[in-house]
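Handout, tutorial session.
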Amino acid sequence: MQSTHRQVLAIIETSTEFGRGLLKGILNYTQTIDTKVQKPWRVRLDQRGVHDGLPKDFDSWHGDGIISQSNTLDIFRQLQKKKIPIVELLNNEVSSSVGVNFNYEKTTQIAASHFCDRGLENIAWFGSSNIWWISRMRESFIQELRKLGRKCILCPDDFSQDDLAHHPKWDEFQRKPLIRWLKKLPLPVGIWAASDMLALRVIETCYDIGLDVPNQVAVLGTGNDSLLCSLSFPQLSSIDVNSERMGFVAAELLDKKMNDQAFNAESDVDKQTIFRTLSPKGVIARQSTDMVATTDPICIKAIDFIRERFREKISAVDVAEYAEISRAMLDRRFVASFGRTINKVINRLRMETAEYLLLQTDQKISQVATNSGFNCYEYFFRAFQQRHNMTPEEFRARR
């Protein structure tokens, strides 16, 4: 009897918000399928951890396509034996023919800028060294910081386990090396972790040894697992890599493979190999990176005022009057501390707020502008386009 549905296997972990975002994107795509033209999908999904192997009944499963996070090359090779279309979400662009990744270069640019905008000179990386995509992020981060005139401080080789954050003997084998590393870091320092769970480990350990987050150590995660980020103390800033969009695009590619359709011009000559890289949404800024890397008491006083009042109609003159110093002198001290003028600091904070509201709320664009401190919508629109090379509407559409 011929099946009335296409059978699709989703080998995707369900234990993190990143994985659940991928699944939500797949679901969203299945709802766009015109069932008058083709069969609807029946998606097979199991509860999975980050490093689980294949389902026990995989050898006896028969279907039409697979979307997978293959955490090892061995798993991917087992999937290939089915000789059905596969879209890989952890592909290394060598072992798989069709895959979707987030844009590592853009992600590292966002992380580097987030720290540099806070005036940090000391910036560090924390993550495993033997996972290909984490290594790629690390190398890209090193290169990006080099362009900005900064050196990346790498964590030691002690941290090389595949599942570093969830290591069953974390306290016994990983905590001590992390303590030694943290104590050696020059302060203040920004630390970018390869995952939100790793970032939480850093925050917990800083607390245990008396390092202040964020005033001495600013910590940034990856993945924006909202539950983990909100439960952290202080709440964790994290890069949202847009996993929901990744899941949607992966399902779209699989559908084309199963329909034996040619890809667009992005694919290679035989129309069978294609890799999509998607831009992250950006940093969701919370308390763990809410720091100012300066010892200038006038600048600190001015920044506190800006943070409290940036949504209002304040100017550089208002800030200078509050700090009891001339506008010209305060601008010089801001450039010395942060590499930018008072107005640029105010506008950066307003723009980051607008980005957050565009991605996390359904407020009208004009309301986003007002609630971010931009009193002139036209100015906001032009400034946003200049910063992102897209309109606010296009930026929101990436959610």
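The second record follows below. Compare its token runs with those of the first.
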Amino acid sequence: MDLRFLGAAREVGRSALLVNGRLLLDCGTKTATPPQFPVGFSRAGGLDPHPDAVVASHGHLDHVGTLPALLSGDRRPPIHWTPPTRDLTRVLARDTLDLHGGTYDCPFTEADLARLGEVSETHGYRESFVAAGHEVTFFDAGHIPGSAHVLVDDGETRLLYTGDFHVEDGNDSRTEEAGSDAPPSRTDRSGNPIRGQRLVAGSRARPDADVVVTESTYSDVTHSDRDRLEARFAESVRTTLWEGGTVVVPAFAIGRTQELLLVCAAHDIPCYVDGMGVRVTEILRQYPDYLRDPAALQRAVSHARTVTGRDGQRERIADQGTVVVTTSGMLSGGPAMTYVPAVRRNPTNKIALTGYQVEGTPGRELLETGSAEFDGQVMPVSAQVEQYDFSAHADREGLFAFLDSYRDARTFVVHGDRCPAFAEELVAEGFDAAAPDLGATVSV
């Protein structure tokens, strides 16, 4: 089996892995200025070599952001995904077209987006199918609804492409010594303890594989105990509200917005929800089988007030002393571009970042310098800035716990800021591991 790493090699973003020159796993975009696309991609010819079929692991921009561009010209490779991933990819593509259509930031056209429906083939978890001559099977990756580990079998080698994943048996299952102020345990609709995200359960699948290509986003991070993280977030938000301030909660539209709505509802925190996350939430409610607790999400939606954005509504909300969960999670667009400038001058207000901030984004700039660029203008921020690790990725312990099932496999580390370092740490633990260079081809 030949593997060509067209993206996410020694970086986070533009995930793309070509198998045997025929089957493409993911085709993402890297958030940057300007955005970056997989190696070999051009607007004139798409991807070279052009794949015979595509498999998408999940609906996040860094995994599917460039995918519609593969349908330009005369080529129409079938695209295989779960139903939620199909719908989420369309929402992301529509948003990209609306914001950047006709510019370098958007690599595809309206016609390319329309063709997605012509080539779409959906599959559930553990339902094997054939793509470009390979047997492929999806397994629940526990990252967002519809996210999948992708198992590829070419008849000689079994490859497990993890995609992004979260585990139920990593750090989230550890308990700290309980004191009198320990927060109550979270439970699902059946009364079972929740040891990870409220939105989806973590991955428990460990299919047999000869080769593993693993993400490593949080390879040097230990996630906080989720119960205590929620309690700290809720206490901070309530304090700001009591003082009369507004809390802006930037959140990724897919996964993180819904998680934060669930957290706010569980802790009885009144909130607004704004941005693309509103539409995404409605999509995810159509797929209850891919959610941990569909009824809980329904209650969370009812608990939040939806922002329409008409007639200066956002400016008025920003001055109300309330909580707003809004896109974008890295402050690179969306209604956050209105809310943050509106609350930035008052030190009673708060900006609660809830996800990974890629280098070069306004969110990362705000964390590191206390100011950020909005609409072309660098603005100092006097409001309090906090960061909470509501991650949907496995942390260091979770990665080791997952990979422990694959000690006899050959492992390639991708999708991280420290891929070579983590590969070396795996080698020290007895793994056959490496971090491939961007564009490299490896035979296994």
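Points raised in discussion: The chain has twelve helices and 24 strands.
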